[in-house]
């Protein structure tokens, strides 16, 4: 496997830049989308959530590269991003045509789920401004070369939006490698995004090309199988429990196929109910498998964004300590805390994360 070395913090304007879509999330709270009469509104997006978590919880300097329509909804998205402390200067603003015929802002309606009722997501994001980003829209030489970026994060959700979003993700990864910026990628396979666009075969073609430029790969077992075509033989995934040997085999098979990757990390989740999950992670790095602390029967308020918060915690651990054995515990702790609050993004503090990594509990703090 390749060696991971981050650029010096003093030489870079940003610790991390994310490339992806930022949507408005409409949350019916304890209710359901089809019967609610009111929603709470948050911002969210697989790639953005990582930048937001690193800025808000871990106090790193981050930015988002995305597209947003310049209307009232777009300015609401911007306002929410600004509240999260993420730099908005790399947003590409698209002109509004009056009704969203040619370009629009992405919307995501999400039920949290509870007990035997699983979470439900309904996206309304076709023809979004982010999906229309294309190669040549961003001056990567300025961003990576002159401003300086230690880490680029993007992922399979953004790459699935359109052929041009996949192309600009590849362009960004190549530019990042040119300037010595670490590249991470979250596979985040979503069947709904690929359903009308070639299915698993198309997803694998896109993700396999991008994977050759990735230093740190995130995902779960289904992601590695569906989005990268990784096969370890034997039976199909068993969702009645966590088969650690099988998961380790998936990571090792991925490492063998992509020797350019320094770290491959997988979140492990066994669902007892929507509000009761076993939660942990493993990572393969330096020829070894690293196991995280385990959180059996984690009580969950809102599971959406837990994997993104794992990624931001893991990235913090790698940039701060350079040790995947430490980073993986920051990842699972941050992901666990993020799932105790509503919305896609983390509301955790660094003190809370450190307390969990050290084995702390949920006693009252006062």
If you had to describe this structure to a student in words, what would you say it looks like?
- With 366 residues, the protein is of the alpha/beta class.
- The protein has one domain (9-234, 243-357): 3-Layer(aba) Sandwich (UDP-N-acetylmuramoyl-L-alanine:D-glutamate ligase), CATH 3.40.1190.
- Helix content is 36%, strand content 23%.
- The chain has 12 helices and 14 strands.
- It has helices at 46-56, 72-83, 140-147, 156-160, 163-178, 191-194, 199-211, 221-228, 244-257, 306-321, 324-338, 350-357; strands at 14-19, 23-27, 40-44, 62-69, 91-94, 107-111, 120-124, 149-155, 182-186, 216-219, 263-273, 276-285, 288-291, 295-299.
- The strands form 2 sheets. Strands 1, 4, 5, 8, 9, 10, 11, 12, 13 and 14 form a 10-stranded mixed β-sheet that branches. A 4-stranded mixed β-sheet has the order 3-2-6-7.
- Strand 11 and strand 12 form a beta hairpin.
- Helix 1 packs across helix 10 (306-321), helix 10 runs antiparallel to helix 11 (324-338) and helix 11 (324-338) packs across helix 12.
- The protein starts with 13 loop residues before the first strand and ends in a 9-residue tail after the last helix.
- The relative contact order is 0.14.
- The model has no long low-confidence stretch (mean pLDDT 94).
């Amino acid at each position: 496997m390749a060696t991971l070395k981050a650029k010096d913090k003093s030489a870079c304007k940003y610790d991390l830049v994310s490339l992806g879509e930022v949507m408005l999330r409409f949350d019916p709270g304890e209710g359901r989308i089809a019967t609610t009469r009111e929603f709470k509104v948050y911002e969210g997006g697989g790639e953005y959530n990582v930048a937001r978590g690193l800025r808000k919880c871990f106090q790193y300097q981050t930015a988002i590269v995305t597209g947003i329509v310049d209307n009232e909804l777009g300015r609401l998205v911007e306002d929410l991003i600004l509240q999260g402390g993420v730099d908005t200067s790399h947003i590409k603003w698209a002109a509004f045509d009056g009704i969203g015929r040619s370009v629009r802002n992405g919307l995501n309606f999400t039920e949290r789920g509870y007990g035997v009722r699983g979470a439900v997501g309904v996206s309304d994001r076709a023809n979004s401004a982010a999906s229309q980003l294309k190669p040549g829209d961003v001056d990567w030489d300025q961003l990576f070369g002159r401003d300086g970026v230690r880490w680029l994060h993007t992922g399979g959700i953004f790459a699935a939006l359109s052929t041009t979003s996949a192309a600009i993700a590849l362009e960004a990864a190549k530019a990042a490698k040119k300037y010595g910026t670490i590249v991470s990628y979250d596979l985040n396979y979503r069947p709904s995004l690929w359903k009308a666009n070639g299915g698993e075969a198309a997803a694998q073609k896109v993700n396999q090309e991008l994977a050759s430029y990735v230093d740190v790969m995130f995902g779960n077992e289904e992601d590695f199988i569906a989005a990268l075509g990784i096969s370890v033989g034997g039976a199909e995934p068993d969702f009645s429990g966590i088969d650690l040997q099988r998961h380790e085999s998936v990571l090792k098979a991925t490492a063998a196929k992509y020797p350019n990757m320094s770290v491959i990390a997988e979140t492990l989740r066994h669902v007892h109910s929507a509000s009761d999950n076993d939660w942990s992670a493993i990572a393969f790095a330096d020829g070894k498998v690293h196991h995280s602390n385990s959180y059996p029967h984690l009580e969950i308020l809102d599971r959406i964004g837990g994997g993104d918060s794992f990624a931001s915690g893991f990235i913090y651990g790698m940039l701060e300590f350079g040790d995947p054995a430490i980073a993986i515990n920051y990842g699972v702790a941050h992901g666990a805390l993020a799932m105790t609050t509503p919305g896609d993004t983390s509301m955790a503090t660094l003190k809370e994360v450190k307390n969990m990594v050290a084995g702390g509990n949920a006693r009252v703090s006062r």
